[in-house]
Amino acid sequence: MAILPFYGATHPDLFAIERSAMDRPGKVIDRLDDLLPHGLVADIGAGDGFTAARLTVADRTVLAVEPAAGMIDRSRDLPWIRADAETLPFSDESLDAVYATWAYFFSRGFDPSQGIAEAVRTLRPDGRIVIVDNAGGDEFCALTSHDISADLSYWSTRGFTVEVIETVFEFETLEEADRLLEFYFGAPDPSRRTRFSYRVMLAVADRKTANGSLI
User: Fold this and answer.
1) Residue 156: which domain range?
2) What is the CATH number of the domain that holds 152?
3) Which pLDDT band holds residue 108 (cuts at 50, 70, 90)?
4) Predicted model pTM
5) Calpha distance 119→84 (Å, rounded)
6) For the chain, which terminal residue's Cβ has fewer other Cβ atoms within 10 angstroms, N or C?
7) pLDDT of 173-206, one tens digit each?
8) 3-state DSSP call for residue 66?
9) Residue 54 in contact with residue 75, Cβ under 8 Å?
10) What CA–CA distance (Å, rounded) separates 107 from 154?
11) Alpha helices in the chain (DSSP H)
């Protein structure tokens, strides 16, 4: 099982701070709720289920797919499936939608094409795929000299419509900001802020357009 190294399984307290702080207003969740259909939806790289729990509503079941056993939070009432994005344990054309949030489909220095192909395989003919990642060009991503944004052109040239949501990465306390930013970047932010502008990419495609990008 292919698992990208990730800190959440060994530092769940920091992961909880991250997921509460990134997109504090919930704009990404709201947009995902608009984009995702009812029916059967898979969250690929679901982490501890933070997003899946918020998107499970009447007539929509979100399957929390997570490869790292240490990430799975059984206290969340979700259908958990331990699997990775490149070998999804679903039949062909069995899902209404697939999405991933800051999880697997990194498009800089990593080839997500096999994961995209697997997602497309599992989608019904009218199914949808949504990828969420950093858009860059904001105060949060500027905290490091490394480019931690998605390559937006990667998605737009592969049949995806790309939109950017302007939101904030906001911590409840300076202590939380210091802990997570030092862990992320090696040092706390010298400006001693708890709020940073943050731009998030949503790349959206239906089965036909995403499949066409793989031919």
Assistant:
1) 7-212
2) 3.40.50.150
3) low
4) 0.92
5) 11
6) C
7) 999 999 999 998 898 889 999 999 999 999 999 9
8) coil
9) no
10) 7
11) 12-21, 27-35, 50-55, 113-122, 152-156, 174-185, 207-212
